[in-house]
Amino acid sequence: MIKNIAGAAVVTAASPFESVFAGVDHGSIVLKGNIHHSVSQWCFGDIPLEDFAKICKEIGLESIELLQEKDWATVAKYGLKCAVGYATDWGIPKGFNRSENHEKLITDFENMIPKAAAAGVPNLICFSGNREGQNDNEGMITCAKGLRKLMPTAEKHGVTIIMELLNSYGHKDYQCDKTAWGSALCEMVGSERFKLLYDIYHMQIMEGNVCDTITKYSPYIAHIHTGGVPGRHELDETQELFYPAIMRALLKTGYKGFVGQEFVPAQTDKIESLRKCIQICDV
């Protein structure tokens, strides 16, 4: 009997994620309702959006995100939101930290904010841009000057502009690569309609201490992205973070926003991977 108990203890200790899946029918997830689940479409981009929307609805997700305006109606048709939309065709390197970028960015966002409000899209993503030799204080001031011009429209329509925190190793030279910098920018902009997209994968690489950082800077965080470290794959025992603990820390802050799965599936059955990662985060 002692031998059998000891053997069971070893199995339990060696597989800390097994309890997350115990007794669950992966074809039909019963979610607890504490986390608002979303998923980034680009990670499953080989699946047609209509098909993917049907699958996400069946799984129990509330949103498919990082979509262009033309796709918002497609997910809405299946009773889903787009938690984060795009406002401009400019990508990560060209952001608000350069004055010469402001005219186009402000025009694009001013045009898209009312459309997002009408479509029920709560957040529009933006980026700081790359440093290109610029110091962080100068970049922050320049970002704030541009973003402040958007705040009256964002406040009027109830749409939040969120700047994504990214690691500046993978996204080489990106300026908004620390939570403290992004939070200081939020203070400088001075509006509840400008906040951060805290990407757990990126910030684990840049600074670690994820639970404490989320707790400390929670007033400035409007959206969450996930991803396994290293590799940005599934949130399972193959990576270094324990996502149930992170999600519990997030809920303790009173967080009411979405948690967007943004991992790149390494497993052959991508939908099964999505189901499992949703379950891991559903605390």
What keywords describe this structure?
45% helix, 283 residues, 8 strands
Question: Can you give a write-up of this model?
Answer:
The chain has helices spanning 2-14, 18-21, 49-59, 69-77, 99-119, 136-157, 179-189, 200-206, 210-216, 243-252, 270-281; strands at 36-40, 63-65, 84-85, 123-126, 160-164, 194-199, 221-225, 258-261. The protein is an alpha/beta fold and 283 residues long. The protein has an eight-stranded parallel sheet with strand order 2-1-8-7-6-5-4-3. Helix 5 links the parallel strand 3 and strand 4 (123-126). The longest helix has 22 residues, at 136-157. The protein is globular.
Number of DSSP-assigned strands: 8
The oligomerization state is single chain
What's the overall geometry? Answer: globular
Helix percentage range: 40-55%
Provide the residue-averaged pLDDT. Answer: 92
Q: How do the strands line up in the largest sheet?
A: 2-1-8-7-6-5-4-3
Unreliable sequence segments? 1-16, 18-26
Class from secondary-structure proportions:
alpha/beta
Strand content: 5-15%
What would CATH call the homologous superfamily?
Divalent-metal-dependent TIM barrel enzymes
Number of helices: 11
The CATH C-level name is Alpha Beta
Give the N-terminus to C-terminus distance in angstroms.
34 Å
What is the element layout, followed by pairings?
Layout: H1 2-14, H2 18-21, E1 36-40, H3 49-59, E2 63-65, H4 69-77, E3 84-85, H5 99-119, E4 123-126, H6 136-157, E5 160-164, H7 179-189, E6 194-199, H8 200-206, H9 210-216, E7 221-225, H10 243-252, E8 258-261, H11 270-281
Parallel strand pairs: 1-2, 1-8, 3-4, 4-5, 5-6, 6-7, 7-8
